[in-house]
Amino acid sequence: MAPILTLSYLTKRVPGVTALDDVSFALEPGTVTALIGENGAGKSTIVKILTGIYQPDGGGLALEGRAIQLNSARDAWDAGIAAIHQDTVMFDELSVAEIVFMGHMPGGRLGDWAQMRRRTGDLLARSDAGFDADTPLKRLSVAEKHMVEVARALSHDARVVIMDEPTAALSRNEIDELFGLVETLKAEGRAILFISHKFDEIFRVSDAWVCLRDGQLAGAGRTAEATEAELVRLMVGRPVDQVFPKRKIALGDTVLAVEGLGNATEFADLTFDLRRGEILGFYGRVGAGRPEAMQCLFGICRAGRGRVTLDGKTLNIRAPSDAIRAGLAYVPEDRQVQGAALPMTIRENTTLASLRDHASGPFLSARSERAATRQLGQRLDVRAASWETAVGDLSGGNQQ
Fold first, then answer.
1. pLDDT tens per residue, range 155-205
2. Bridge partners (DSSP) listed for residue 164
């Protein structure tokens, strides 16, 4: 079938970096195309071009064979392109119905509120959502906000639906429900661009794949004919056993011991030991209390009971600064709200938790900050034009 959306020789340059270099591929109706690549490969740049945030420096777009130019997010919306992002940025004080029909409210300028609520209710029923059209957005979890974004895309009858790591904050059951919606969208003839780092999801949901590496097209094909090892090799340029070499680590003594930690409403009797050299995983449904428990350990909120010891010494963590001094670090699930100060630079964010290490008398040492940022940025392969780039201008993976 003829493609719905064609990307031809797209090139995009940002200061110091060529984010995209002559990238071409097409999105076909009733097809899920997986867009894969390492952090900084160009995936976020593709999404920003397709949603009108960026304009390409070279190449162009065609919708059903007709050249189009997306100068704004509104242009993309009018062209029938909708995006469901990993980070749900919405107006928390509005209702679900108001979010779903924002910008295209039924009933003209005054609006038909009854019709809006009814249509929102129908869309939520398709998603098996456990909330109604009048629910304030601020009461919803991250997973439920993703359902609202799906409903918003369906309300617009979008022909192209971009899913940018939509499962990052979802439980297994919620992922199954989302993939059920994907199948519905496919059956309706929509083209879906699916971005994920999870290969089990890519092989489960996609029909085709496109791989980017360092802003260039590394390969494309049908998912049924590909293997995980092949895709990893294309992403990083070397075999999978060289990317993730198996290592044997001898576990040491207990470093962190938690006994009976709990609060009044979110979790209770959390007890575990973390040993040196060990990775301890926590899992459970959204709302089970995982992030809340970690926030209590880090001093963001207070536990009502329980005991925490580090290297055998009892900790009294009343604030994140206490946790930092004790040697604890916290990477939250919501990186844009809790994890980073987006208007500040990479350097400022990197050293924010360790300012004492970069003080010279009453002043900060910019030289010390830059040296630390350079070392950590290179170690973690953060890709940016400079360490003075605002974190909000980075791709999602580089922000993380």
1. 887 899 999 888 876 767 778 878 888 888 898 899 999 998 889 999 999
2. 195
Which residue bears the tokens 């990993």? 86
CA-angle at 259, arms to 254 and 265, nearest 5°:
140
Structure tokens at 322: 């206490």
Closest to 161 in 3D by CA, of 75, 72, 32: 32
| Architecture of the domain spanning 247-330 | 3-Layer(aba) Sandwich (3.40)
pTM: 0.72
Rounded to whole angstroms, the Cα distance separating 170 from 189 reads 25
Q: How many CB atoms lie within 10 A of CB 4?
A: 22
Q: How far apart are the first and last CA of the chain?
A: 38
Structure tokens, 199: 């290969």
Beta bridge partners of 159: none
* % of the chain with per-residue pLDDT over 90: 52
Handedness of CA 199, 200, 203, 206 (dihedral sign): negative
Classify burial at 142, counting beta carbons within 10 Å of its beta carbon; exposed 0-12, middle 13-18, buried 19 or more: middle
Q: Where are the beta strands (DSSP E) in 276-356?
A: 305-310, 313-314
Q: What is the pLDDT of residues 78-97, one digit of tens each?
A: 899 998 877 666 788 999 99
Under DSSP, the state recorded for 136 is B
Q: Which residues pair with 161 in a beta bridge?
A: 82, 192
What gap in Å lies between CA 38 and CA 305, rounded to an integer? 42
Domain ranges of the chain: 5-243, 247-330, 341-400
Q: How many C-beta atoms surround the C-beta of residue 283 within 10 A? A: 8
Q: 53, 73 in Cβ contact below 8 A? A: yes
CB 55 within 8 A of CB 70: yes
Domain 5-243 CATH superfamily: P-loop containing nucleotide triphosphate hydrolases (3.40.50.300)
Q: Is 386 helix (H, G, I), strand (E, B) or coil?
A: coil
Q: Give 374's contacts (C-beta < 8 A, 6+ positions apart).
A: 387
Instruction: Give pLDDT, residue 243.
Output: 60
Look at the block and give the residue holding tokens 């162009």: 60
